[in-house]
Design a protein that fits this description.
The protein is an alpha/beta fold. The protein is globular and about 45 Å long. Bound molecules: S-adenosylmethionine.
Length: 201
C-alpha cells in the first residue's frame, strides 16, 4: 500500500458531509453524468465499482448477476451500506484488489482516479480482475488539454495540500499506458471532466 500520506483519513473525515456537499453538483449535472457512465456497463453481468464512496452511483447500476462496490474508507462505507440491499460492499484498496483474475465482466469508477496515489497500479489491478474483452468505464476530472491546462496545474497545488486530490492528471493517457484499449473519450465541461471507455485486451 502506498498511503504514507493518510488519504483514507481524508475521506473518513469527509464521509458524513459528502452527500450534502455534492448535492449542488448532482443537481447541476453530475447525476446525469453518473447515469450516462453506468449506462455503458453490460446488463446482467458481473460488475465491480472501485472507490464507491457513499454509494452515489447505486441508484444507477444496471441489473447485475453480481455487483460489488469496493471502497477504501470505512466511514464512506458506513454511509453507503444504508443505500443498498443487493450490492456487496468490500473495504479494499483499488491498488490491491482481493479478487481472482478474470472475475468481472466490467468495472467502473467515478471521481476516483484523482485521489488514487498510484493510478497505474490500480489500472493493472483492473486489467487483472476484468475478463479479456471486458469493459472499464471511468468518469473523472482531469487536466484539460486546452488553455485551461496550466490553470489546473496551479489548482493542483492547493487541492493536493488540502485533500490529496490531483487536479492535473491525464487519466486516459495513464489508462492507455497501462495497457488498456481506449475506445472513446467523451469530453464534458470544456474537457475538465472525461467519460473514458476502455476495453481489456
Ligand atoms: C471523490 S470520492 C468519489 C466517491 C464516489 N465514487 C462518487 O462518485 O461520489 C473518491 C473516493 O475514492 C476513494 N478512494 C481513493 N483512493 C482509493 C483507493 N486507492 N482504493 C479504494 N478507494 C479509493 C475514496 O476513499 C473516496 O471514497
Amino acid at each position: 500500500m502506498s498511503y504514507a500520506h493518510g488519504m483514507p483519513a481524508v475521506y473518513d473525515n469527509l464521509a458524513s458531509g459528502y452527500d450534502l456537499a455534492f448535492k449542488p453538483l448532482d443537481a447541476l449535472g453530475l447525476t446525469r453524468l453518473r447515469r450516462e457512465t453506468l449506462a455503458l456497463l453490460p446488463v446482467d453481468g458481473t460488475i465491480l465499482e472501485v472507490g464507491a464512496g457513499t454509494g452515489a452511483n447505486f441508484a444507477h447500476y444496471p441489473p447485475c448477476k453480481l455487483a460489488v462496490a469496493s471502497e477504501f474508507s470505512i466511514k464512506m462505507i458506513e454511509v453507503a451500506v444504508g443505500k443498498t440491499s443487493t450490492i456487496r460492499l468490500v473495504q479494499t484498496n483499488a491498488e490491491m484488489l482481493p479478487f481472482p483474475a478474470d472475475h468481472f465482466d466490467a468495472a467502473f469508477a467515478t471521481l476516483v482516479f484523482c485521489s488514487i496515489p498510484d493510478p497505474a497500479l490500480a489500472f493493472a489491478e483492473l486489467r487483472r480482475v476484468v475478463k479479456p474483452g471486458g469493459r472499464i468505464v471511468l468518469l473523472e476530472h482531469v487536466r484539460p488539454d486546452n488553455l485551461l491546462g496550466p490553470v489546473f496545474d496551479l489548482i493542483n497545488v492547493a487541492s493536493m495540500a488540502i485533500a490529496q486530490d490531483h487536479f492535473n492528471r491525464r487519466t486516459a493517457q495513464t489508462a492507455a499506458a497501462s495497457g488498456l484499449k481506449i475506445v472513446e473519450v467523451r469530453k464534458k465541461l470544456l474537457g475538465i471532466v472525461n467519460l473514458i471507455v476502455c476495453d481489456v485486451n
